[in-house]
Amino acid sequence: MLRFLDAGESHGPALTAIVEGLPAGFAVSEEKIHEELRRRQKGYGRGGRMAIEEDRVEILSGLAKGITTGAPVTLLLRNRDYENWKNLTEEDTAVQVPRPGHGDLTGEFKYATGNLRNSIERSSARETAIRTAVGALCRQILEELGMTVRSKVHSLYGLFDGEADLFDETVYGKIEESPMRVLSREEEFKTLVDSAKREGDTLGGWIRASLRGCPRGVGSFMAYDRRLDAQLAFAAMSIQGIKEVAVGNPFHRLTGAQYHDGIRMEEGKLKRLSNHAGGIEGGISNGEDIELWAYMKPIPSVKIKLPSVNLSTGENTDSRYERSDVTAVVPGSIVLENVLAFEILKAVLLTFSPDNKKELEAALNYRNTRQGDFR
Ligand SMILES: Cc1cc2nc3c(=O)[nH]c(=O)nc-3n(C[C@H](O)[C@H](O)[C@H](O)COP(=O)(O)O)c2cc1C
Ligand SMILES: C=C(O[C@@H]1CC(C(=O)O)=C[C@@H](OP(=O)(O)O)[C@H]1O)C(=O)O
C-alpha cells in the first residue's frame, strides 16, 4: 500500500518524508517537484514567510538514475527561516495566549508542554510544503499514465459563488492551456485581499480540483473504507484550514432527474451525458473527471483583536498576532491538487496491486477497454 510519513517543524531545520509503496520503473525528477513547490509559494495574499523561503527538495533514496526502484523514497526540504530562529531562546519564542481557530489551545490541552510555540510549530501549514512534494512525486507517475490534476480558486469570502471563476495565470499557467473554462477576475480578488489586509482581517474561500483520466473501477463499495469518495474527502479535510469537502458541485440545486448522469452506448462505448456525480458512483470511479471541492476557512491569525486568555496568568486578554497570510486559498488549491494526486495514486495501486510500471500499464489497459461484462 502506498503510504508516507512526514516530519518537521515550521521553523526547524527541515521537513522530511518517506514515501513507501511506489511501483518500480517510473521516471521522476526533482525539477518537477520544484515546479509544484514554486506554485504553492505563490498567490496574492501570502505573508512575509514566502519571501524568505525558496522551497526545493533533495531526493535521498529510492531512485536509480532518476527511475523508481520500488524502494522507499526519502525527501528532504530545508527551511531557510531556520537561520533566523536557530539562535532564539525559548523565552524569545514563548507563547502563552492562544489564537482562536488555530491549534494553539487544543495542542496545549493534549501535549501540555507549557509553551504554545510547540503546538504552533507542528500544527502550522508549513507541513503542506513537504506534502506537496510527496504529491508532486505521485503526480509524475499519474501523468505518465495519462492522468492530470488541475485546480482553481472558485470563490473568496463567499463572493463569485457559482457565478464566476477566479484564475491566477502566474500560478495556473496560460489560460489556453487550462482544461477548464476560466474567467479572469484577478483584480476583484486583489481588491478583496487588500481590503481585508487593511482591516487586519483574513479571508477564506472555495477551491475546486479536477482529475482527468482516472481509470474506471478505482475504489470499492465492498467495504466502507475502500470507497474512493470517502478517501478523497479524508485527504482534503486533512489539509490545514479545510472545513468542507464535496464530490461533484456543492452548489447544486437540482432534482434527482436533473442530477443523475444519463448512460448511453455510442459507437460501442459507454458514455455519460453529464458529470454531476463528480466521477464517482458507489465509491468507485466511473471514468469521468473526478471533481473535488473544498472550502478553506479564513486564516486564524487575524490582526483584529479576538477574545483570548493568557494561560500563564489565567486572565482574559486580547489574542496576539503572529505573522501570517491574509488568505491562503491559492496555495491551498495547489496543496489540494497534490494531496489529490497522492490519494488517487494510492487508490489506483490498491485496486491493481502492481509492483512495476509494466504491470500497472497492462492492468489499466484491460480496465479501460472493458464496457461492462455483458458483451
Ligand atoms: C498553505 C496554507 C497556508 C496557511 N497559512 C496560515 C497563516 O499564515 N497563518 C495562520 O494562522 N494559518 C494559516 N493556515 C491555516 C492554519 O494552518 C490552520 O487553520 C490551522 O492549522 C488550524 O487547523 P484547522 O483550520 O484545520 O482546524 C494556512 C493553511 C494553508 C493550507
Ligand atoms: C510557512 C508556510 O505557511 C505558514 C503557515 C502558517 C500556519 O500557521 O499554518 C503560518 C505562517 O508561517 P510563519 O509563522 O512562519 O509566517 C505561514 O507562512 C508555508 O506555506 O510554507
UniProtKB/TrEMBL annotation:
GO molecular function annotation: chorismate synthase activity; FMN binding
Pathway noted in the entry: Metabolic intermediate biosynthesis; chorismate biosynthesis; chorismate from D-erythrose 4-phosphate and phosphoenolpyruvate: step 7/7
InterPro entries: Chorismate_synth, Chorismate_synth_AroC_sf, Chorismate_synthase_CS
Top-level taxon: Bacteria
GO CC aspect terms: cytosol
Keyword set includes Amino-acid biosynthesis: yes
Residue positions binding FMN: 122-124, 240-241, 282, 297-301, 323
Binding residues for NADP(+): 40, 46
One Pfam match: Chorismate_synt
Enzyme Commission code: 4.2.3.5
Required cofactor names: FMNH2
Keywords: Amino-acid biosynthesis, Aromatic amino acid biosynthesis, FAD, Flavoprotein, FMN, Lyase, NADP
Biological process per Gene Ontology, one example term: amino acid biosynthetic process
Swiss-Prot/TrEMBL catalytic activity: 5-O-(1-carboxyvinyl)-3-phosphoshikimate = chorismate + phosphate
Glycoprotein in keyword set: no
Cofactor, how bound (note): Reduced FMN (FMNH(2)).
Family affiliation: Belongs to the chorismate synthase family.
Function comment: This reaction introduces a second double bond into the aromatic ring system.
Subunit structure: Homotetramer.
Protein name: Chorismate synthase
Annotated source species: Proteiniclasticum sediminis
Gene name of the encoded protein: aroC
